[in-house]
Amino acid sequence: MSLVSARMDAPHIDENPFFVLDLPIDCGAMDIERAGQKLLAMLKVGMKDAASYRTPLGPRQRDEDAVRRAMAALREPQARAMAEFWARPEVWEPVHETRLPVWSDAHKRLGTLDR
Amino acid sequence: MSGGAALILGKVLLYAAIAVIILLVKKASPGVTATRALSWLILVPTTFIASVFALQGGIFSILVFVVACLLWFGGPLATFVATPIGSPRVASTLAVVGAIPHHLDRRGLGSIAAARSCLVLRNRRHPGLAGALTYVDKRIADTAVLRPGTVVARGFCCVVLGDREQAQLLFKSVGDFAAPLRSGPAQFFAARWLIADAASRGEWGALQVLPRRLNTALTRFAAECATRIKQGPAAVARTTLVERWLLTSSRVATVPLLKMAWSAPTRPPTADASYLLARHAAALRGHVTSEDMLELAMSWDRAMAEVPPPFRMTVLDDLNALADSNPDLRGRHPYFSNNADEVLRSFEIAVEAFQRRIADERWLTPIDEWVEIAVLRQLYDDLAVDASRRSIAFDTIRLVITNYAAELFNRRHQKPIANALFLWMEREARFARDEELLQLNKKNVACGFG
Asked: pLDDT per residue over A18-41, tens digit each?
């Protein structure tokens, strides 16, 4: 079965503030400030742990600009709602685990002589 | 009454009896032609008499009996004996002989039997495969008037060569022929292969839409099963499944499919927002097939009215971007619209090239003409995903196809192909409310295919 190739560029996921700041979607304003400042400090001293962050589409590079943009976005109610929309954990629960069944011996049963 | 008069009266009575029997047979089975009924009328008593005399050991009677058996059982012998042995020539000959009393497409059935023998040779990695394929190819290329049987035979050749896409295209195209032409073994083999191919890969979406192109009792049953497997028990009732299953001619073979559909687990409703988002996320991560993508687009379409505008834009951006990188999705849904212009352009280029070829009278073999039509029709279907695009596609092709079909009918003697094209244009003209073209194609369809 041929799979659709993944899209490499999805800004609402790649640059989602919750992923950038590594925060849950129910975090408060204080959590955002604390996490942002901490990451900025870590980036300033060049700590490796802060240089990248995880997204459901794979790891992405983190820099000071991205952190500042993420903090600003989460202060805006509309932008925050949009970010929450895509950062909800249940969205990223793998649906492929409930794959539909296949009729593996269909060719044999239907006598197509193919395999 | 003199002996001569009695003989004449006897002959008249005999002819009258034959005529009455033919009429009764025709009335009982509307698809049966007079010649077919007559050949059965001759063959049945001949076989019976020959078998009685053959039991007494008469050489001539044994010969007649063998010939009658070949005529009666040529088809099954080809399918169950010669094809599994992997003997294209024997299988083809038996199929041709077996097609005579049934007045079926002899050339096509012979080619199908030979092509299926090639499949057996391929499965066994037999060194004689190349030679067998050459034989079948020549048989197909030399077909004077193309009928569905030859199309199916070419489809099986594509399967042998590993070209599944072309095989699917050809098998589906069998459904484009007029119903009396496509019914019988050609449609039977095409439907079975398409169902097996899709079901063995779990491509249930493809099965759901199969009856739109190839509408048989078996494809309708498979479509119901696919819907229930995909959408859960609420989508199709078990009684409907059983009803459809009983109408198929492949009840034993399709028991596993019935069982799968029967015990299909409940699935989350496709319009459920979090399920929709989860599927969207899976698509972004590349965990879905083209069919899943199409279904995702359709689910978004149904839910879009309730999606706030900013989210709507990101959803559409994602779908466009995914469609851009996947040619399979081209033009299959308006949400994959970034490449819609590209699809239209490809279609126009294909139509132009087609038109130029016909104008230059560069005719192909009948089967290659059909392959080109099938490709064009696929492009047309890819483009005609909604009413406005269907109109654009129809405007581009309406006169090209109608004139081409008339040429095939009048000068090239390819009446079955021409009839299939007239049927297509008639349906599209009805959709576009093009009254003039509708009437013209209705008249053309009425000219028949024989």
From this structure: 999 999 988 988 999 999 999 999
**Chain B window 97-116: which residues touch A at a Cβ cutoff of 8 Å?**
116
Q: Could you tell me the residue range of the domain that residue A19 belongs to?
A: 11-88
* Residues B93, B60 share a domain: yes
Size of interface A-B (CB pairs under 8 A): 139
DSSP states of B259-318: HHHHTPPP---TT-HHHHHHHHHHHHTT-SBHHHHHHHHHHHHHHGGGS-HHHHHHHHHH
Q: Is residue A50 part of a domain?
A: yes
- Judged by a CB distance cut-off of 8 A, whether residue B282 touches chain A is yes
Provide the domain count of chain B.
Answer: 4
Residue at B354 is within a domain: yes
Contact A100 B83 (CB under 8 A): no
- Amino acid, single-letter form, for residue B255: V
Instruction: Specify the CATH number for the domain of residue A29.
Output: 1.10.287
User: Which chain B positions have a beta carbon within 8 Å of A54's beta carbon?
Assistant: none
Range of the domain at B204: 176-266
Q: Are A62 and A53 in contact (CB under 8 A)?
A: yes
Tell whether the model's pLDDT for residue B302 goes beyond 80.
no
Asked if the structure places residue A93 within a domain, the reply is no
pLDDT in tens, B361-403: 899 999 999 999 999 998 888 777 667 778 888 999 999 999 9
**Helices B204-213 & B164-173 angle (0-180, nearest 10):** 40
